C-alpha cells in the first residue's frame, strides 16, 4: 500500500489481441493461489472463470474409467487456460487503477546498483525507467535473471526432463462435453501418459507427455494410429482420426524445464518471483500456486520488516527458497508417480489408507496431496511431515506383521 | 593432423607480460594430464617445470607432522602455478608452428549455424572469424557456453560452495624452503582447512579454505592473529606476523564454483572442453587432468568416426559427460573428506587397509585415489568399482565379525 507500481510486459495486451500467440499448459488454481487472490479481493471473480474439479478420472487400457478424488468433499481445483490471464489483468486493472500497465516492453538490461532498466518499447526505440525495487516475474526464461547470472555466488540450474509434450483437442459432442467434465482425465501408461482437461467452450485439451525419443519414432500417420490404437484406444473416436493426424504433426513436442536458483535477490534493488525464481515441471499443478504464494510470503515479510528492502529481500530468499525447492522436487517425484503408480493397486491402496487415517486422525495424518493442494502448510514442512508419516506407517506395518506372526505361532525373528 | 588451427585467447600473451594479472589455484598434473601431454610430445618438458610430490603432510594442532603417501613409490603428482601456462604455450607454439595464436581477443558472440565468431580485438575493433569447428576451452565462465544457454534442452547448473579461499605466502628461510618441499602440506580443521604448496622460487603458497561467513567474522588484526594462534599456530612464524596481517586483508576471499552441463556440443559446429564443460571444486586435483583427458577422448572418437564432426560431437557428449560428472561429484565428496576425515583414525585405517589389500590383490582392490590419479580408468568406472570394493569390504567385516562371534560361542543372529 502506498507504492507506485508500474508493470512492464513483453507481450501485447491480450485483452485486445485477436489471436493469442504462444501456448500454455492448463493452469491449476488451488488453495495457495486462491489465498493470494483473496488478499487482493479478486478470488471469486477469477474462480468463476474456471472449471472446478473434484477428482481425477483414470482411463485403463480396456476403456474402464475410475475416479480418484483430490481430497474431501468440497475440496476442488479450478482449471483455467490463458483466458485466466485476461481476467487477471482486467481484475487487477480495476482493483488498482493507479497501477500503470505497459505492454510490448521487452527488458534489455538493468542495473543492480542504480535500479535503471532499459526496455525495447513498442515504437522500436529504447526506453529507460527507474525503480526503487524491481520485481522480476518474467517466467522460466526470465530476462531479469540474466543480470543475476553475471554476479558471483549465484546458484542456478536448469534441467530439461526427457519428456516433451504435445497438445490435442477433443471437440464437443452434440453441443456438450464429450467426456465427463469436472474431472482431470488421465491415461497413465508407465513411461508416458496423456491427460485431458475441460475448457469453458466444452472442448477438452489433451496433453500427451512422452520421452522425446518416442515422439521421434512416430513419423507417419499409420505409426501414429497404431500407437493410439495400442495405448489410448478410447480416445481416438473422441479426438477424431482426421484431427489427430492433423494436430499431432502440426508442431514438434515442446520441452519441459525445471529451474532453481538462489538467492532470489540482488542487493536491495531486485527480487525474483514465480517461474523466474523456480520453474517446475507441471505434474503437481503447483506452478502458479507457488508463484502466487510467493506474493503472500513477500507481503508478510514486508510487514514484518517495515518495508525496508535491505532487510526484506535477504529474509525472503532465506524463508522462501527452501519451500520452492521442496515443491519443485515434489513435482519431479509426481512426474514419475502420475504416469506409473496412479493405476497400480498399491497406489490406490495407499490413497485409501491415507484418506482413512486422515478421517480417523484428521490432525495427525494428512495426505501429502491435501497438505500441498488444500492448505498453506509450508512446502518443506509438508514434505518433512509426509516423510514422518511414512515412517510411522512402515513401523505400524511391522508391528501388525509381528503381531500376526505371533498369533500364527511363528518364532520371533 | 591436417587441420588448420587458430587459437583465440582473451588475455594478453603471458610470455611477454611483465605482471601476470589474475590468480590461479595451484595446478596438479597427474597421470591423465601427462598422458595427454605425451600424445603431443611435450610431457617431459612440462613435468620438468613443476615440483613433484609423493605425499601429503598432515599438520596437527600441536604442530606434529605426519606424511600420507599418494600411492606407491614412484607415483607422483607434479604441481605447477600459472608459470606452467607459459611453458605450455611455448611448447605448443614450438611443436605446432602452423597453429596461429591470437591474444587479447575477447569472444563477443558466435553463430551455431554458420560457425562465424565475432571478437573484440586488441585494437578495440570487432573482428569476424569463421571456423568449421569451434572448440570452447574458455573456462568456468565460458563465453562460448552463453550461446548454448540460449538453446532449448541444454541442461546447466552452477553451484557455489559455502567456502571461499584466500592465498598467503611462506617466504624462503635462509635461501631454502621453510618446510619440507615435495609434500602437499595440509592443516585439516574439520569445517575449514589450509594447504601449502611449494613453488620453484622456494616459497610456499598457502591457501586457506573457509566458509565465507567465517571469513566475514575476521575483521581486525587481533581477531586474525587469535584465529591463527588457535588453529594454525605452527604456520605463524613461517608466514610472518606482518605478512599475514598484510596479505590476509589485501583481497576478499574468492568463490569456488562447480559447473555441470550437457550436451557438450551444438549441432556439428561447436564443442566444449575443460572447465567450460565441467568446472569442479579443486579438492581432488583433477580439474586440469580432466580437461586434458577430454582431448584424448575427443581424439579417440575423431579416429573412430573418421573425423566426421556430425558423428563425433554427439558421441563425445555421450561418452565423456558422465565421466566428468562423476569426477566433479568426487571432488565435492573430497571437499568434505579432505578437511575433516584426513586426520581421523578411521581415515588413516581405511588408507592402510586399502593400500594393504591393493598390495595383496593388486588387480582386484585398487584404492579410489590411485584409480583417479594414477590410471586412466574411466572416472565413472572408478566410482562404480570403488562402491563395489566398499561393499565387499563391508561384507568381509560382517563375515569376520560373524566368525568371531561363533568362536566366542554367541548365538547366531
Explain what the structure shows:
- Two copies of one chain form a homodimer.
- Chain A has 413 residues and is of the alpha+beta class.
- Chain A has a domain at 345-407.
- Chain A is built from 14 helices and 18 strands.
- In chain A, strand 4 and strand 5 (65-69) form a beta hairpin.
- The model of chain A has no long low-confidence stretch (mean pLDDT 87).
- Chain A binds chain B through residues 149, 152-160, 255, and chain B through 149, 152-160, 212, 255.
- Strand 12 of chain A pairs antiparallel with strand 12 (155-170) of chain B.
Query: What Rg of chain A is obtained from the alpha carbons, in whole angstroms?
Result: 24 Å
Q: Compute the separation of the termini of chain A in Å.
A: 66 Å
Q: Indicate the percent of residues in helices of chain A.
A: 40-55%
Unreliable spans of chain A: none
Main β-sheet, spatial strand arrangement of chain A: 5-4-13-14-15-12-16
Query: Which chain pair has the greatest contact?
Result: A-B, 11 and 12 residues
**How many strand units of chain A?**
18
- Output the number of helix runs of chain A: 14
Our estimate of the beta-strand percent of chain A is 15-25%
Bulk shape of chain A:
globular
